Amino acid sequence: SILLDWHRNRNVGWQGDWLDDLSRDDYLRLYTILLSRYEHNPVLKMAGTFNEYKGMDSGFWKQEMELIVSSLETRFPDRFSWVIGCPQWSGNCHDMDWSHLNFSDRVYIDIHKDQWSHVIDQGYEQDWEYSFPKNRTNVILGEWGWKSELPEQVVWASQFVQWLSKNNISNSCFWVSVTNSGDTNGLWKECRDFEESKYQLLQQFWNNTIPRQTYL
Question: Which residues is 109 bridged to in the sheet?
Fold first, then answer.
């Protein structure tokens, strides 16, 4: 199954922000063209609206994303599940809630977490308790990972897996499989050396959670 991620607006090597070099109308037009191409392919299950909104204005973001997903849902009724990121590079979903939408059972909140960012002074668990949405029924941990060669990140990952298991949060996309991310260094190095320690912790996570969906 595929979750289609709208990662950035330009074909460049860095992450821009929402509607950089693109109008809202152009965004909807282009995404409609793309989704129309694969509309009848059953492998495509979910569509993400925008990967990482850099801003901190949750009120603006809620209104903007409601407009986007409502427009796309009108064009593709009952076809896709919608995955919506959050402010602060998708690191803070505290105020995100689209439960009032009549298709809210197919709206998922996408939060991203790693050790080197999104941490507040009070500690890891306080950050997770605050930044995850209040209603965690439809949550996808869209990006998460750590560097196994850094002991403090290994501690973070172990504690995070325990917290996710305790809160029955199981939908997740590990970042990343191959070494094309400076954030986590991936599971494979140059597609040769496998990071067994990462895999063991991921296996612990999978064994301790009960998936609500079979998408991921």
Answer: 84, 139
pLDDT digits (tens, 9 = 90+) for 156-172: 999 999 999 999 898 99
For the record, the structure tokens of 174 come out as: 């590990």
Q: What is the pTM of this model?
A: 0.89
Q: Which tens digit of pLDDT belongs to each residue from 1-33?
A: 899 999 888 776 677 899 988 899 999 999 999
Report the C-alpha gap between 9 and 186 in whole angstroms: 24
Please name the amino acid found at residue 105: D
- Gap between the Cα atoms of 171 and 164, Å rounded: 10
Q: Three-class SS of residue 65?
A: helix
Q: Are strands 107-114 and 139-145 parallel, antiparallel or unpaired?
A: parallel
Which residue carries 């560097």 as its tokens? 147
Question: Distance between CA 132 and CA 136 in Å, rounded?
Answer: 7
